[in-house]
Task: inverse folding
């Protein structure tokens, strides 16, 4: 009488001794399928600007608290917090100094500024280190955890610490939760470290009147005159693609365009724009996730082979829907 292969495999696992090689908990194909499913859910459920966004200077989006909470709801996860460490002193004197930019704002998009320094002394210090523990609601099993810290010594709180004690505690919890959700769902390749706070809490006078840098009107007119007819058409097509994908922020779309352009030997021609449009379609459909996903698609095709890249992206869209997604030549303003 033969032995059931499944029983044999189970017996091998049970007999493993401490120090033995760590084995996958499931078949590799099943694990990869799960990761692709998570990527599709993230691509469809989260919206840029609400759940995540790309902070200027970062190469990947930053996950926001609403996005992390939405993912916990979708995957039936719960989060509990523990205060691991705290420092509270209501009477300590803290001298502080802030150096920040004062924008000229002579016209919309003016990037000129001067540095100014503010000094003072505040009273009180509050610091929290919290742990976010993620559990599976259906099983009650702990599936992950992460630490988060916040302190009134941070520049945005240091001049008013007594007003920010509770804010620091909540901020530490938020940072821990966002980090834990990314770890549990394996989203570090899609989202960067938590740099959201530096932009969301920045004082108004520390930012230019318009976040998107634009040239002065005279410079804009000069640039328009210097464009060739083909460049003008490509610029119109670029703007049309942005309007056709409202869920993708201009900064994120620009980052993807730069990746495709670099892959196509720094060519900004029609081929690059067409491949970029298809890449945006795939991103919208959850078929390409994160900058690593974009880079993975580009690596799968010989550098500069635009036709091959368009076929790969079109095939992905065709496999996901009955009718291939993306814009056709009739849709663009040519």
Result:
């Amino acid at each position: 009488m033969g032995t059931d292969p499944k029983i044999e495999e189970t017996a091998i696992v049970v007999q493993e001794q401490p120090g033995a090689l760590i084995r996958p908990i499931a078949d590799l194909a099943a694990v990869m399928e799960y990761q692709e499913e998570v990527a599709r859910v993230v691509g469809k459920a989260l919206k840029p600007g609400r759940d995540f966004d790309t902070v200027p200077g970062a190469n990947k989006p930053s996950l926001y608290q609403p996005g992390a909470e939405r993912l916990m709801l979708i995957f039936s996860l719960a989060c509990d917090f523990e205060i691991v460490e705290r420092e509270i002193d209501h009477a300590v004197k803290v001298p502080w100094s802030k150096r920040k930019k004062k924008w000229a704002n002579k016209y919309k998009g003016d990037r000129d500024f001067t540095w100014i320094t503010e000094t003072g002394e505040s009273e009180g210090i509050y610091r929290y280190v919290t742990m976010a523990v993620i559990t599976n609601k259906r099983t009650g099993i702990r599936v992950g955890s992460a630490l988060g810290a916040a302190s009134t010594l941070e520049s945005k709180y240091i001049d008013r610490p007594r007003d920010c004690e509770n804010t620091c505690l909540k901020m530490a919890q938020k940072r821990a939760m966002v980090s834990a959700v990314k770890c549990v769902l394996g989203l570090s390749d899609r989202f960067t470290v938590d740099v959201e706070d530096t932009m969301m809490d920045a004082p108004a006078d520390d930012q230019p009147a318009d976040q998107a840098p634009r040239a002065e009107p005279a410079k804009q007119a000069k640039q328009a005159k210097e464009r060739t007819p083909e460049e003008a058409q490509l610029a119109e097509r670029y703007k049309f693609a942005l309007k056709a994908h409202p869920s993708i922020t201009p900064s994120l779309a620009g980052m993807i365009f730069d990746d495709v352009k670099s892959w196509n030997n720094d060519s900004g021609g029609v081929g690059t724009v067409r491949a970029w449009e298809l890449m945006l379609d795939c991103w919208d459909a959850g078929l390409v996730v994160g900058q690593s996903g974009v880079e993975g698609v580009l690596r799968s095709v010989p550098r500069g082979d635009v036709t091959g890249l368009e076929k790969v992206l079109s095939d992905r869209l065709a496999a996901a829907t009955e009718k291939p997604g993306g814009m056709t030549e009739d849709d663009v303003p040519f």
Summary: Residues 1-17, 197-206, 210-216, 322-334 have pLDDT under 50 and may be disordered. The radius of gyration is 25 Å. Residues 52-206 form one domain. The chain has two domains: 52-206, 227-331.
